[in-house]
Amino acid sequence: MAEKQEQPEHNLPLEGEGQSKELQRNKRMKCFAYVLAFAVFQTGVILIFVLVFLKIRTPKFRLHSATFENFNVTASSFQMRMNAELDVKNANFGPYKFDNSSITFFYRGAQVGNGFISKASARFRSTKKFNVTIDLSSTKLPSSAELGSDLKSGILPLTSHSTLNGKVEQMKEKENGEAALLGDGKSFNHGGCEAP
Q1: Are 125 and 92 contacting, i.e. CB atoms less than 8 angstroms apart?
Q2: What is the pLDDT of residues 124-149, one digit of tens each?
């Protein structure tokens, strides 16, 4: 019975056992640090992917060049045909598909011509070029001294306006509506054939 009453010995950790537990703790902390660093790296990669590749940019729509034919210019009126080369620059990582539209030309705020733009698609990260024929005429304009002086000088200031409504398709599922605008002013020398 004396054996039963003996006090149990306290289990004191041995010196080697404490070092191995410390080594295991250090290994766990190192593993946790690696997992955390990998998670931060993956988050950064995903964030860069979303901000660079999936960001929808509005396509640029502009009048690239124009040539003129069938000139009929008098001291107070003009009538001519314009062959305009338009382009849509798509900087997105998906095709931009736009609908039918029109382009309108103005002389000092008054409409002098209108052209039809048929629906098409600009491939991803490329420029789609197409031609539009527009008949320009001043027959609907009131007679003014400005028109006569502009025609006399050989420079005809025209402005244009057009809107292309379409969608950018990315990753075959995501579609967003975008509108590309054309609104610029150009002065055309009707003494020559090329637009500046």
Answers
A1: yes
A2: 889 999 999 999 998 888 777 788 88
CA distance 53 to 178: 17
Read off the tokens for 100.
């039918």
Alpha-helix residue ranges (DSSP H) falling in 54-180? 145-153
Q: Are residues 67 and 30 in the same domain?
A: no
Domain-embedded: residue 128: yes
Indicate whether 25 and 99 sit together in one domain: no
What pairs with residue 130 in β-bridges? Answer: 86
Q: What angle do CA 134, 136, 140 make, to 5 degrees?
A: 135
Q: How many alpha carbons fall within 13 Å on the CB side of residue 87?
A: 10
Amino acid identity for residue 113 in this structure:
G
**Identity (one letter) of the amino acid at 148?**
G
Report which residue type is found at 189: N
Helix (H, G, I), strand (E, B) or coil at 153: helix
Q: How many domains does the chain have?
A: 2
pLDDT tens sequence across 153-169: 888 888 888 888 888 88
Its pTM stands at: 0.68
Domain extent at residue 64: 60-189
CA distance 114 to 104: 4
